[in-house]
User: Fold Oxidoreductase, short-chain dehydrogenase/reductase family protein from Lunatimonas lonarensis.
Amino acid sequence: MRLNNKVIIVTGSTTGIGKAIAERAVAEGAKVVVHGLEPDWAVDLLGELGEENAVSLIGDLADEATAARLVDLAVSRFGRLDAVVNNAAIVASSNLESTDTVFLEKLLRVNTIAPFLLIKAALPYLGEARGCVLNIGSVNAWSGEPNLLAYSISKGGLMTMTRNLGDALFRDHGVKVNQINPGWVLTETEIQRKKEHGLSDNWYEDLPAMYAPAKRILLPREIAAAAVFWLSDESGPVSGQVMELEQYPMIGRNAPKDSSTIH
Assistant:
């Protein structure tokens, strides 16, 4: 087992990519702190993972106290902390005209500042374990789509933080910090979001080649498979790196004006 006996916090793990990472981590021998905003989903996931392998915390990452609560729960339940996966994020459409200060600050608080706070709270334990941080970003960090301005800004900030701390924390504490930038992923929330944009119930079965040369988009379990490498000892001393997971080598987006196509 590649993550045997490691204790890992995964934010935003009651659904989507975070859930897939939590499931894969437990399958690889880890103990996991599940986090989200949906109590019922957390209960269902704990039932799947087993209470001996996972514990959950429901809390808003916009609340600064949530980071410390997650760390305290991991250590009190499992006795240590080896890794943090900063996966939780708000995905919301906006452009220059529709983005005001309140909206931008809301996305930054959850998508960029919350990961910073969790890393800071976890650092004493991660340093003791010579552990790691894995940030889940987005290919939109490089420039972003026209209608994902605030989201792209927040993910750009996260990527810079990964590069910066990947050097500083590894040098001073032996803690690695890396990042995965997924492209378009078929999560439960993405399916619903596109339906709300007016697409059909099975919109993901007929996608333009520009966005899906493989005739489909990425699955959460495929992101989770990559996450295991970064969370395991297999990644060695590599730190401060960003892995792009998309179907084609495209930095940024030149999306059409139809917002239903954004991801």
Observations:
- The chain is about 45% helix and 15% strand.
- The chain has two domains: 7-183+221-243, 186-217.
- The chain has a mean pLDDT of 93.
- The two ends are 34 Å apart (CA to CA).
